[in-house]
Amino acid sequence: GDSVTQMEGPVTLSEEAFLTINCTYTATGYPSLFWYVQYPGEGLQLLLKATKADDKGSNKGFEATYRKETTSFHLEKGSVQVSDSAVYFCASHISNFGNEKLTFGTGTRLTIIP
Amino acid sequence: GAVVSQHPSRVICKSGTSVKIECRSLDFQATTMFWYRQFPKKSLMLMATSNEGSKATYEQGVEKDKFLINHASLTLSTLTVTSAHPEDSSFYICSARSLGGNYGYTFGSGTRLTVV
Fold it and tell me: How many Cα neighbours within 13 Å face the side chain of A113?
C-alpha cells in the first residue's frame, strides 16, 4: 500500500541554520505531495504542496521539490527561525475511482534554539 | 480562507461515558470529512471517512460501534466516542474537504480527550 517515510526526529538546530527534513513515498499511482506543520496544541496547517513531478512547493521560506525519480519530497529552508519550531508532517494524496486517502509520515519534531 | 472549527478543544470524561466531538466547516461546504487519531509522538491515523448523508467508511481495525460518526449536513460532522475507556485517551483531529475544485484538506485544531 501507499506509505510515507520521513526523517525521524527530533531535530534541533540553531537559529539561521539550514534545514533539511527528508521524505520519501511509495504509491501505486501518481500522488500529490504535501508538507503540513503542527504547532503545539493545534491541528495541522498546510505548509506547501506539489501536485506533479518536478513541481516545487514553497511557502514562508520553506521549499520542497517533487522528485519522481527518487520518490522524494524533501523539505528545506535556508535560514530557520525560533518560530519554525513545530512538528512537520510529510503526506501523500492519491485518488482512485472516487476513493481518496491522505497518508502521513510519522512527523519530525523541529526545535530551533536562539 | 477555508476554516474548520473543532469543538471542544479539550474534554475530560469518566470511564463508561460518551463524548461527542464536533467538526464544522465555517465558510465552505464539506462533502467529505475525515477523522484522525494522533498518538503521542506518532503520526495521524485515519479512523474513518464520512460523506454527507451516507454512512462513514471506517479504516481496518477501527470499531465503528465505538466511534460513531455522523455527517448530517455539508457543514457538520460529529464523532462520538461511546463507553469511553482510558485507552481511548488521545488527540482527535478532523479534516474537511471542500466540494469540487482544488485540493482542500482543512484541518480542525484538534480535541484532546482524557478518559479517567
Answer: 5
